[in-house]
Amino acid sequence: MLINWFTVAAQALNFLILVGLLKHFLYKPILTAIDAREKRIAGELADAVAKKSEAQKEHDDFQHKNEDFDRERAALLSKATNEANAERERLLAEARQAADALSAKRREVLKSDVQGLNQAITRRTQEEVFAIARKVLTDLATASLEERLIAVFTRRLRELDGKTKTDLAAAIQTASDPALVRSAFELPTEQRAVIQNALNEAFSAEVRVRFEASPDTVCGIELSANGKKLGWSMADYLASLERAVGELLKESDKSEAEAPPKADPGAPPKTEGSKPEARVNEQSV
Questions:
Q1: Does 237 score more than 70 pLDDT?
Q2: How far apart are alpha carbons 171 and 57 in whole angstroms?
Q3: How confident is the model at residue 238 (pLDDT cuts 50, 70, 90)?
């Protein structure tokens, strides 16, 4: 068989041309597409890694922020709790103070009312004792109560001695104003003269005297000069009576607190106390 070298050469040339054409129009675009795809995939992988890293970073930041938020929330809650407790204690303290102040005010009002009632009872007792004493002395001694008081007062003046008399005499002599004689009643001229004579006799001098009626001096007479006082009244009787009544009330309260057996309602009450005695009140102001 004869080889046609022209045909072989032509086929070889066609093959080379076909390879060139395939390389230029087929393989090269395919390789370029493959390279572009690989680059695109690599870029996408790099972007995915970057996004994953960014997402992890954001997750870590969110976790840190969440932890910081939890700590701040716990701190704020603790602070709010402490402030609420402090405010509660403050309000409770203010409420206690207000309650104590109200209680103290009520006690003061009650004490004032009790004192006013005691004063009213004392004054009424003085007035009743004054009226009873006046009537008794008038009926039994055939003399008015004023006359008896004047007699007692002048007798006390004549019986003065020692330091009391010296101090009172010095006060009368050094006083720029006349000596003041106060009584619960308006003294008539005769009784004023009796007191004036008793003063002159007691202090061996002409004593200037000014008389004054004072309802506060119940059943008594008081001489005052330059801060010195000498008086006689039924205040001691009333004070003794007040002490006896106070002791009786205390015993009654104590008995009620201890809840003793009830006594016979028909039996008379037993109280202890000393009989009040009339005496001269000598005071220095």
A1: no
A2: 105
A3: low
Q: Which residues lie below 8 Å from residue 207, measured CB to CB, with a gap of 6+?
A: 172, 179, 196, 199, 200
Closest Cα partner for 190 from 217, 159, 162, 211?
A: 211
d(CA 161, CA 70) in angstroms, rounded, equals 95
Cα four-point dihedral sign 275, 276, 278, 280: positive
226 by Cβ neighbours in 10 Å (0-12 / 13-18 / 19+) ranks as middle
**In this predicted structure, what is the pLDDT of residue 216?**
65
Stated pTM of the model: 0.38
Whole-angstrom distance, CA of residue 148 vs CA of residue 192: 14
pLDDT digits (tens, 9 = 90+) for 153-199: 888 887 877 788 888 888 888 888 888 888 877 888 888 888 888 88
Tell me if 253 sits within 8 A of 267, measured CB to CB.
Answer: no
What number of other Cβ atoms are within 10 A of residue 232's Cβ?
Answer: 22
Per-residue pLDDT of 46-57, as tens digits, reads 888 888 888 888
Tokens at 50, concatenated = 């970057």
**Which distant-in-sequence residues (6+ apart) come within 8 Å of 153 by Cβ?**
195, 198, 221, 232
Q: Which residue's structure tokens are 């007479």?
A: 221
Cα distance between residue 248 and residue 125, in whole Å: 17
Beta strands in the chain (DSSP E): 179-183, 209-213, 220-225, 228-233, 281-284
Token pair listed for 92: 């409770």
pLDDT tens, 194-219? 888 888 888 888 888 888 887 666 56
The pairing of strands 209-213 and 179-183 is parallel
DSSP for 69-137, written as a single string:
HHHHHHHHHHHHHHHHHHHHHHHHHHHHHHHHHHHHHHHHHHHHHHHHHHHHHHHHHHHHHHHHHHHHH
